[in-house]
User: Fold these one by one.
Assistant:
Number 1:
Amino acid sequence: MRHHVTLIPGDGIGEEVAEATLEVLKAAGVDIQWDHQSAGLAALYKSGTPVPKATLDSIRKNGVALKGPTTTPVASGHRSANVILRQELDLYACIRPVKSVPGVKSRYENVDLVIFRENTEGLYGGQELEVTKGTFVALKVVTEHACTAIANATFAYAAKHNRHHVTVGHKANILKLSDGLFLHRAYQVAEQYPGITCNDVIVDALCMRLVTDPSQFDMLLLENLYGDILSDLCAGLVGGLGLVPGANIGNDYAVFEAVHGSAPDIAGQGLANPTALIKSAVMMLQHLGEQTAAARIDTAVESVFLQGHVRTRDLGGQATTQEFTKALLAAL
Ligand code: NAI
């Protein structure tokens, strides 16, 4: 079956990891008609906006997109293309499975958890203002609707994927109303799933427990900012950002992208590890019902890491992006 998918390569290492991913998908024999669109810096230069209407239209038409990372300038400049895409398309659930990769040396070998991050509100509305000279306010928006939606998505996923425990991370000791609502809705939804246990941990203590013993966690349910930060922290537990995939899912659309950013420090040098985007593409194939191709790619990635000869630099090896991709194609 032919699939129609929007491709946003992004910038920084985006082109390099997107190219590798397309090669792997092609070799796996999936029939995908790609609609190439831009977002982030590339779009800004081309059409003066980080997310052109054509990009949104394409995703609305195809329903599914694969996206590379996009750069967002710090403390000035354009709004994040990611935030715009997630809010415009109501991609309220950000799903990030973090799993130890056999053969990859990392701090832990037994991590297997899934992060659910609320993706549309919290502090990411970008609503900031100067109330008096020298005093700024950033609005953290928390709605019952979004808290319920992400809690429903989390428990539904747990039930479907045979996961048994959800830990809610929060700061409701300080943010009693906003984080309080997030926590309250999570427990209400949990009542509908008697087979899945639920507890909550204040987010600072959660960080400590994660770095001490991540194997005690099964699923994490987090609001936007905590989910953003803890995603990178958890990536560090299994070997780094080069390995961890992700999906942004709403009721109507899905955008698959790695946790990592545009990695300007290594962009254009052929050093990027494409595994995270390739694994995001595996999640995309599962979403499209291409289970066989998804499993084939997963197995190939596993075997390259288990053989242990070909590693990109982030994992202590010498292989370039292309060399790693070539090994993966051979394993396929
Ligand atoms: P980053 O994730 O781009 O890089 C952090 C560190 O990890 C760097 O040392 C980088 O070289 C390394 N790294 C990341 N991905 C890698 C890969 N695939 N292979 C090997 N090494 C990898 O985070 P940073 O530097 O904080 O952000 C850079 C830019 O990316 C910023 O403009 C930020 O806004 C943007 N960003 C975009 C995201 C997206 O489009 N989804 C997500 C996160 C950040």
Note: The mean pLDDT is 97.
Number 2:
Amino acid sequence: MGRIAYVNGQFVRHGDAVVHIEDRGYQLADAVYEVWALFDGKLADAEGHFARLERSLSELSIPTPMSRAALTIVLKEAVRQNRVRDGLVYLQVGRGVAPRGHAFPDQPTAPSVVITVSAVDRPALEAKAAKGVTVITTPENRWGRCDIKTVGLLPNALAKQAAKEKGAGEAWFVDELGFVTEGASSNAWIIDADGVLRTRDTNANILRGVTRRTLLDVLAGEGMKVEERPFTPQEALEAQEAFITGAGILVLPVVAVDGKPVGNGEVGPVAMKLRRLYIERARATAV
Ligand code: PDD
């Protein structure tokens, strides 16, 4: 008999097991997981793994999909159906399926639950243990590669949700030196107190926004003064205007940061002009 997986309430052939394309685990890494070792078909360290699972779910405000007792029954049934004695059980629980967006879905979604079971070759593992392993070292960079447009978007999703809960439209990440890096799904700009357009340089750990790049070209064409230099939230408050850029929002004026007005707290003329210029350029060059 072949392998069996559990997907959202059903046991299915492993090869036929699929999740929805808008599962937030798939699109945003908005999910948690646990792995149990199996000894004689029984879950090892069950309590510790259940406790960590519940904590992980709680930290992300993902509802527990079922009681611990019910989950134990499902996990054991998955093990039984796979006839595995020595192996591993993998459990993934995600926020569920919703139209793509960073913040949590407005409508409550049923958490997604996937379980797979795999066998291990215990004698081979023992032989390996008897020999020991070698290791290498690598710089701690989890996750220091925001320049890559990956779907590892959980921090962005949590930041966007925090903004939403405060009635804001975007969250700006601030680095350890107090400078804004970028938005949860946009690049950040100001027109500073001296009237200079500023956006962070892309040597920093940020996404190289395509909208940002094109707007820089547009600005050069207009002969406007631009500096690729970081700014602090305080500088944004003291700025004449602020705005964000991205494929989703194009050029969008920012009127307040952390509840305090940027400039006079109103949409500024320069940001709106840049929005118009960007849209003109984007329309003219669209293929
Ligand atoms: N996000 N920074 C981050 C973290 C982003 O996710 C995005 C875009 C940008 C702007 O990049 P661009 O100008 O190439 O769209 C900057 C997209 C729109 C999204 O996740 O929906």
Note: The two ends are 52 Å apart (CA to CA).
